Amino acid sequence: MKQKMRDSGKKLMPFRRVIVFALHVVLAAAAFSTAFLLRFDFDRSQIPDHHMLGFTIICPLAIILKLIALQYFDANRGLWRYAGISDLMTIAKACAVSSVLLILIVVIFYGHGFPRSVHIVDFILSVVFFGGIRFASRLFRESLRPSIRRNSGKPTLIIGAGDAGETALRSLTKGDLSGYQVLGFLDDDPNKQGKLMHGFQILGKVSDLPAMVQEYQVSEVLIAISSVSKKFIREVVESCSGQNIGFHIMPPMKTYMSGDLEIEPIRKVKVEDLLGRDPVKLDRGLVEGLLKGKSVMITGAGGSIGSEIARQVASFCPEKIILVDFAESALFETDFELHERFPKIESVANIVNVRNQGDLEKTFSENRPHCVFHAAAYKHVSLMEQHPSNAVCTNVMGTRNVVEAAVAHKVEKFVLISTDKAVRPTNVMGATKRLCELVVARQHSPNTQFASVRFGNVLGSNGSVIPIFEKQISKGGPVRVTDPEMTRFFMTIPEAVELVLQTSAIAESNDVYVLDMGNPVKIIDLARNMIELSGMVVDEDIKIEIIGARPGEKIHEELITYGEDLLPTNIKKIKLLRKTGDVPGGDAFEDNLKTLEELGLNRQDEDVKTLLWHMMQEDQCSA
């Protein structure tokens, strides 16, 4: 029956405007006629002939004025299924204006002989009739939605009985999300305990969740709290560990208010929600002074970090963004996105290998950048162990080429993106990045400020542990962990780039800055979290397999080493690195660097490794 009524409604859609217009005419006429008859107690014999004549003239005029006012105030544009207080206020304004105009016209052309009470009652009835038909339509449509039955859908608890929780409940009771059986709410507000929201009870506090899961056989938990913290999400998920629960979250209410139509009303809790920290507010004024109206070059612009730098830089209205990368497809994607999202910002894509000094020179001379973010590098530890010559040529020689071009063209600021693997490196990739830091630290130019920013792993970057685990889980496992004790520092890509931009604004020449990465995370715990967030049970649905550390991998990464100290800066999560010893320098370092590059170009891998570790030993001895 309900389906037939929906189908009939669809057939009437092409005639909606005609039907609405006709309804408004009828309701306007009914309101004025009822107001007029009320004045005379619905007794035709009490109505004088001159008033009856006036009614036949004024009633059509009242209808016309109301229709014009409704159209003028856009009262006809709202969807009746979503009618609310704002729609009622719009109708009231339209009716008030039409009533005032009608009174003026009647007084001017008819005098004071027509009953004034008719206009007042007509206004009230018009608001009631026009508003009532809209709310009646909304109630009728809601009655057609599938009802929530105790024997259908996934048993679901909503955490948070505030505005976000009410929005979540509405989303879950719509036809397109009817696969959920809402059991009730959990909320820590003592004043809400035991009360009802749209017929659903606040069953207890958030700490009662594990017990509620057992009692009500809950399979889904929806976190619906405005501005919920990462710590809170982590505690909720951990409280139900091993119980095969699916966790979902509502986007922040401000996301809805922004008008973004592409947001998901409800999404699954991701591992990033557990590992990421609550964001630090970006000091836009500080960064704006560095980037606004300037030409900014980003090397490695097709990568995870480089592309995010490009996005965030574009938001500061630079004069031009110069994208540099040797990976054609990745570079195209970044350039295309910038043109789509920031059409007023000039973006130039350059397919350039940082090993090629001639191409770099041409790119610098053609674009004259004021600021350079150098993110181009090989980053995969296991691959670089197999290809040390490539690591040296791209990471070390590439960095030196970009640095020399920046000096030659008097770039104002040069920022190197470094890594925690540069600290006491045990692998080729980390050693080459340490040399990159040293190359930058040894530069002295009156026109250019050089700085390096060191941080750990970023969540979700290409080829990182999270996408790898996701693929393994999607295939049914096993999830392969190298060592049960292995830990890593994690940070979201947007947060890392925000801090990089703020660092670039405060950086002084030749300094190394370290981002506060929070506490290290055990990789095996990360694997367990990801399995459980997928709605599966560890070792039952998906097993974790220990495969042993790869060549060059550390069990624990570090952000500083012996002889290094971290000093606070004006920005909470950015530290300034101070080394007690001297930066390796002089002819010996320069000679070794040139020899290393020559060995790399000649693909003498074993000799590259030997000299690389010799240079690392000298670096550690200088501490």
Mind telling me which CATH architecture of the largest domain this is? 3-Layer(aba) Sandwich
Uncertain stretches of 5 or more adjacent residues: 1-10, 145-151, 254-263
State the domain count: 3
CA-CA gap between termini? 82 Å
Strand tally? 22
Shape: elongated
Biggest sheet architecture: 9 strands, mixed
**Number of distinct helices:** 22
Q: Determine the strand fraction and express it as a percent band.
A: 15-25%
The spatial strand order of the largest sheet comes to 10-9-8-11-12-13-18-22-21
TL;DR?
This protein is an alpha/beta fold. The chain has 22 helices and 22 strands. The chain has 3 domains: 2-144, no CATH class; 154-269, Rossmann fold (3-Layer(aba) Sandwich); 284-457 and 491-515 and 559-614, Rossmann fold (3-Layer(aba) Sandwich).
Structure description:
The structure is a single chain. This protein starts with a helix and ends with a helix. The strands form 5 sheets. The chain has a 9-stranded mixed sheet, with helices on both faces. A 7-stranded mixed sheet has the order 3-4-2-1-5-6-7, with helices on both faces. A two-stranded parallel sheet has the order 14-17. β3 and β4 form a beta hairpin. The chain contains 22 helices and 22 strands. The model is unreliable at 1-10, 145-151 and 254-263 (pLDDT under 50). It folds into 3 domains: 2-144, no CATH class; 154-269, NAD(P)-binding Rossmann-like Domain (Rossmann fold), CATH 3.40.50; 284-457 and 491-515 and 559-614, 3-Layer(aba) Sandwich (Rossmann fold), CATH 3.40.50.720. It is an alpha/beta fold and 623 residues long. α2 (16-39) packs antiparallel against α3 and α12 packs parallel to α13. 49% of the residues lie in helices and 16% in strands.
